[in-house]
Amino acid sequence: MTTSPPSAPGPVADLPAAGDRVSQTLLLLGGTGDLAARLLLPGLGRLVDTGAQPGLTLIGSGSGTEDWDDERWRRRVADAFATVGADGPRATEVVRTTRYVSADVTREEDLRRLLTDCRGRLVIFFALPPMITARAAAALARIGLPPGTRLMLEKPFGTNAVSARSLNGILARFVPEDQVHRIDHFLGKSTVMNILGLRFANRIFEPVLNSAHVACVDVVFDETLGLEGRAGYYDGAGALVDMVQSHLLQVLALIAMDAPPTLDARDLRGRKAQVLRATRVWDDDPVRWSRRARYTAGEAAGRRLPAYADEPGIDPNRETETLAEVVLAVDTWRWAGVPFRLRSGKALAGKREEAVVTFKQPPRVPTGLTGYEQPDRLRIGFGPDRLSLDVNINGPGNPLELDQVNLAADFGPGELPPYGEVLRGAFEGDPALSVRGDTVEDSWRIVEPVLEAWRAGAVPLQEYPAGSHGPGDSLLTPAPGELRRH
Ligand SMILES: NC(=O)C1=CN([C@@H]2O[C@H](COP(=O)(O)OP(=O)(O)OC[C@H]3O[C@@H](n4cnc5c(N)ncnc54)[C@H](OP(=O)(O)O)[C@@H]3O)[C@@H](O)[C@H]2O)C=CC1
Ligand SMILES: O=C1O[C@H](COP(=O)(O)O)[C@@H](O)[C@H](O)[C@H]1O
């Protein structure tokens, strides 16, 4: 591994010492794309508006297939900043000084030209399709980067375990692991990180978060959004790769990991890695323990949606799923025998974005107390940000009749939107909120048996009308405790 590549371009090479408050350049590859406009630039706007990152220069780049210039780019940045009210002096300065450079990032000469334009410490954000990211990284490995450069790479990282390993290998040739930020914006969501506070800053939950007390854990991300014009990316990915392989496995890891001694990157990522290494498809049977489906025409959240297969840019023969479910086992002392049921789908009846820990029934409800129907549940909501507990109490009325009540705490969104948080991590050189190289490979290892079973046609592609609750035989509907290892 080296940080002194053979041909690092001149101006960026005279770097200040690490840790200083220094001028930095954020080079945004894929700046003309959807991610940059909707999520990344707004996150950046909020971050710079807090006063962090003084002296930041932003350079946006696109492939040059469309007509972009400095003026159009500045408008794009200003519009994105305006969506989050980022209009303070720092944000205004970033808008004033930002520039656009078009470049085919798979070509060495274009990359050299791009790098020559950068000053101070360099952060490169790859907001690019995965195949282009891989080719750009290979080209950068050949030409080299200035020491201290940090790379931010979007998910999905690679397109399968083999390509992820190969991309990790390429990156390791020219950037140390701690300077590689594999982005998972769920790790920047305040409620996701609050899983740590909830679990490890309280005495009452941790002792019961294990197989003695937990019947099952569900991680659910149901959206009402449909394809939203993202055919080019989504039709090659599908719900399992888009959401489960990355975001939902990260949430699973935070819920299932043991307490890290500190929250620094080495401890936190080490704990998550341990859990994911022990995770696999329930009973090693992806045919039995996965579901896939895609939406047909319907109405979701008051919007009429065409069938996924009829959306422009979709190849229906690829059989891309818009809803994926999988049941996983975490083979550790703590979790052996507890099913982790993961599900994400688009164009569903309502938003449901939460992790739910369902507890086992109490050993015995005393004779005389009636009306026990539901086990207690701990719910961690990601949108809206909310923490709640379903508990059985002797409710009003008959004092011996049980009622289930929900004790809830709502909190507003974090100080920064998720992309603001992950950008802050990269600017400050803290990879705690990014995914380590071995973990991303393990995440592919976990989902690959399912992808293979689907490719082989062993799991039928079901259909559900947009605006419905998804297929009727959901793996999440059996009562907790019904899923048993044989
Ligand atoms: N959009 C989203 O909501 C999310 C996206 N992501 C991830 O972010 C990444 C980007 O997604 P998204 O923005 O939606 O994709 P888009 O298709 O909207 O944008 C792709 C970008 O890549 C650029 N690009 C493509 N080929 C080249 C090339 N050879 N040289 C230089 N630039 C190139 C395009 O430039 P041009 O337009 O100029 O051709 C464009 O700016 C993907 O990995 C995706 O998985 C992750 C989370 C959410
Ligand atoms: O990464 C992605 O996440 C979004 C959902 O996350 P949110 O923070 O925008 O709610 C999902 O819609 C998208 O398909 C996926 O690529």
TrEMBL record:
<dbReference type="Pfam" id="PF00479">
    <property type="entry name" value="G6PD_N"/>
</dbReference>
<dbReference type="Pfam" id="PF02781">
    <property type="entry name" value="G6PD_C"/>
</dbReference>
<feature type="domain" description="Glucose-6-phosphate dehydrogenase NAD-binding">
    <location>
        <begin position="28"/>
        <end position="194"/>
    </location>
</feature>
<feature type="binding site">
    <location>
        <position position="63"/>
    </location>
    <ligand>
        <name>NADP(+)</name>
    </ligand>
</feature>
<feature type="binding site">
    <location>
        <position position="223"/>
    </location>
    <ligand>
        <name>substrate</name>
    </ligand>
</feature>
<comment type="similarity">
    <text>Belongs to the glucose-6-phosphate dehydrogenase family.</text>
</comment>
<feature type="binding site">
    <location>
        <begin position="104"/>
        <end position="105"/>
    </location>
    <ligand>
        <name>NADP(+)</name>
    </ligand>
</feature>
<feature type="binding site">
    <location>
        <position position="189"/>
    </location>
    <ligand>
        <name>substrate</name>
    </ligand>
</feature>
<dbReference type="InterPro" id="IPR036291">
    <property type="entry name" value="NAD(P)-bd_dom_sf"/>
</dbReference>
<protein>
    <recommendedName>
        <fullName>Glucose-6-phosphate 1-dehydrogenase</fullName>
        <ecNumber>1.1.1.49</ecNumber>
    </recommendedName>
</protein>
<feature type="binding site">
    <location>
        <position position="346"/>
    </location>
    <ligand>
        <name>substrate</name>
    </ligand>
</feature>
<keyword id="KW-0119">Carbohydrate metabolism</keyword>
<dbReference type="GO" id="GO:0005829">
    <property type="term" value="C:cytosol"/>
</dbReference>
<keyword id="KW-0313">Glucose metabolism</keyword>
<dbReference type="InterPro" id="IPR001282">
    <property type="entry name" value="G6P_DH"/>
</dbReference>
<keyword id="KW-0521">NADP</keyword>
<feature type="binding site">
    <location>
        <position position="155"/>
    </location>
    <ligand>
        <name>NADP(+)</name>
    </ligand>
</feature>
<dbReference type="InterPro" id="IPR022674">
    <property type="entry name" value="G6P_DH_NAD-bd"/>
</dbReference>
<feature type="binding site">
    <location>
        <position position="242"/>
    </location>
    <ligand>
        <name>substrate</name>
    </ligand>
</feature>
<keyword id="KW-0560">Oxidoreductase</keyword>
<dbReference type="GO" id="GO:0006006">
    <property type="term" value="P:glucose metabolic process"/>
</dbReference>
<dbReference type="GO" id="GO:0004345">
    <property type="term" value="F:glucose-6-phosphate dehydrogenase activity"/>
</dbReference>
<feature type="binding site">
    <location>
        <position position="351"/>
    </location>
    <ligand>
        <name>substrate</name>
    </ligand>
</feature>
<feature type="domain" description="Glucose-6-phosphate dehydrogenase C-terminal">
    <location>
        <begin position="198"/>
        <end position="473"/>
    </location>
</feature>
<dbReference type="GO" id="GO:0009051">
    <property type="term" value="P:pentose-phosphate shunt, oxidative branch"/>
</dbReference>
<feature type="binding site">
    <location>
        <position position="185"/>
    </location>
    <ligand>
        <name>substrate</name>
    </ligand>
</feature>
<feature type="active site" description="Proton acceptor">
    <location>
        <position position="247"/>
    </location>
</feature>
<comment type="function">
    <text>Catalyzes the oxidation of glucose 6-phosphate to 6-phosphogluconolactone.</text>
</comment>
<feature type="region of interest" description="Disordered">
    <location>
        <begin position="464"/>
        <end position="486"/>
    </location>
</feature>
<comment type="pathway">
    <text>Carbohydrate degradation; pentose phosphate pathway; D-ribulose 5-phosphate from D-glucose 6-phosphate (oxidative stage): step 1/3.</text>
</comment>
<dbReference type="InterPro" id="IPR022675">
    <property type="entry name" value="G6P_DH_C"/>
</dbReference>
<dbReference type="GO" id="GO:0050661">
    <property type="term" value="F:NADP binding"/>
</dbReference>
